[in-house]
Amino acid sequence: MDPSDFLARAAHVVAALAALLLLARAGRAAARWLRQPEVVGEVTVGLLVGPVMLALSDRALFDALLPAAVIDVLKLVGQTGLVLYLVGLAHKLRPGPGGPPRQALTALTAGAFVVPLITGLLLVGLIGLTQDEAARGHVPLPAFFLMVAVTMSITAVPVLSRILGDRGLNDSAEGRLALASAIVMDSMGWILLTLAIGLGAGHLGGLWESFAALLAGGGCALLLRLGLRTGTARRLCRRMPRTTAVLLGGAALGTAMLTEHFGMTAIVGAAMVGLAIPGDDLAPWARPVASVSHTGRLLTPVFFVVTGVTVLIKAFTAASWSLILGTLVLGCAGKLLGGYAGARFAGSPRLPALRIGVLMNTRGLTELIVIEAGYSAGILPAPLVLALVVMALTTTAMTGPLLQAVDRAERRGAVPAAVLPRAVATEGSTR
């Protein structure tokens, strides 16, 4: 490539990145003004940039502003951000000390995970009844059902944590129970996601390829974990946290590339690295992990812009309103009813159980990552991706208003705000 052409392309990429990050910042500001989680505004703006640009201009101008070569670079940047962000996300998928009792956690997890899996089956049935071939695709039915079921069962741990903190529910029995259940459900969701990708190949060879990818990624993650437990690694972490963060980011990118080379999505490799980082107090790993995740979080808006350009532009014309509405209704029903039923079975009174159900309905960024994994694996077609994205953003945006409605009902009924589930109270009385 001619040096002048290279410099011109690099300048184009830098200008596009700057514009996209500014738009993401505006989206976060708009979400705060609307009292919504920042991720809702950021993701909505990112996904709509491409379709809105194309609607307001002709194709020639759109291709001049975002040519294919620039989109390819932006895709690489967005995937890099996603991998780095997942290191921190997966690192949090571990129940911490002081969590809720196992009986209450099991009951809530069963309700908030199994019921959404069933609504995934109902959504697949709806697609079959309406004979929506664009939303069905051509992958084997077991892989398609399992992937749809996983997307319906996710509760976003990062967004849920932020909502609990903003509303002062971090130390409440409801907040601890909801967060611990979300961690367990997302962990199970990643396992089922991996199985769905393996089944998506339609033959046993696909499962073996997925198994080989898991072995390769898991081997790298195991080596990393053993290395991080050495005295040298702990001293490096204490003395040079920034250098440690760079090394962790490089390990995540390398493991993600390896798993993708073996036919598995890079997301799984990144999650393995996050899970492999020690969660004990032997070294201050939290600081470098936070740095890696924060860097990735800054770049994730680019990932959503590329998704909007490459996926949603086609999906807007192919997705039916019945598919979008059905996905939204079933998504809400699965988490709200499942979370409420599980909390009631755990011993929570009616209104606190309803609050837990609302918290379980928070999808956020984690849901969008799972959707991207399904699309990249060729299991989720573009129209269904659009319907699931609408469901993810809508359910996340609903959380705040629904929590306020529950709070008002609780105040009218003079029900204490922090009523402990019976399982929690019973454990406390025996101490």
UniProtKB/TrEMBL annotation:
Principal location class: membrane
Native organism taxonomy: Bacteria, Bacillati, Actinomycetota, Actinomycetes, Kitasatosporales
All residue ranges annotated as the Cation/H+ exchanger transmembrane domain in the record: 21-403
Tagged with keyword Methyltransferase: no
Subcellular location: Membrane
Transmembrane segments: 6-27, 39-56, 76-93, 105-129, 141-165, 177-201, 207-224, 245-278, 298-316, 323-343
Superkingdom as given in the UniProt entry: Bacteria
Membrane topology field: Multi-pass membrane protein
Key words, A-Z: Ion transport, Membrane, Transmembrane, Transmembrane helix, Transport
Name of this protein: Cation:proton antiporter
